[in-house]
Design brief:
8 helices, mainly alpha
Length: about 150
């Protein structure tokens, strides 16, 4: 708490994020996806735009190729993606979403839409629109509009 008796905005952001993620995990678990990893949502959204290589996935997630490979290996083992030959380069393999990956992404999207509708019902459209504007300002418009993050939006 600050001297004014109000909780620090940084703490509120952390707590709000933790609660959002807790509710999201609870929902996707209830939909049959109880094995989701921390990075899965980003990978699912990235691959929804189409197949990609490990290198491009690493670039999109701003991680090393080794890190992207480990995430892909784990997600492939759990049935969310598969590697198939690249028709334009026999040496390369492309990551594709499986039906399970598409279903997990659809479940997460349903949650996001329901969450926002719930906020709009409780707080009103103007408050949610203002909240979105505040978060965009905090993140930085330039950051939000980078190709990296635009690819992750619904």
């Amino acid at each position: 708490m600050t001297r004014s008796g109000k909780t620090d905005i940084g703490i509120l952001l952390i707590l709000a994020d933790q609660e959002f993620v807790r509710e999201l995990r609870e929902y996707v678990t209830s939909q049959g996806f109880d094995d989701q990893g921390r990075s899965d949502g980003f990978v699912l959204r990235t691959l929804h735009d189409g197949p990609t290589t490990i290198s491009r996935l690493a670039d999109r997630l701003v991680i090393t190729k080794q890190g992207a490979g480990q995430i892909a290996d784990d997600m492939e083992r759990r049935g969310y993606l598969e590697r198939l030959p690249d028709p334009s380069d026999a040496r390369a393999r492309l990551l594709h979403l499986t039906a399970r990956g598409e279903a997990a992404l659809a479940a997460a999207r349903r949650f996001h839409q329901t969450y926002e509708r719930r906020l709009r019902k409780r707080l009103g459209d103007a408050a949610v629109d203002t909240f979105r504007d505040v978060l965009t300002e905090m993140a930085g418009e330039a950051q939000v509009s980078t190709p990296h993050f635009r690819a992750l939006m619904f």
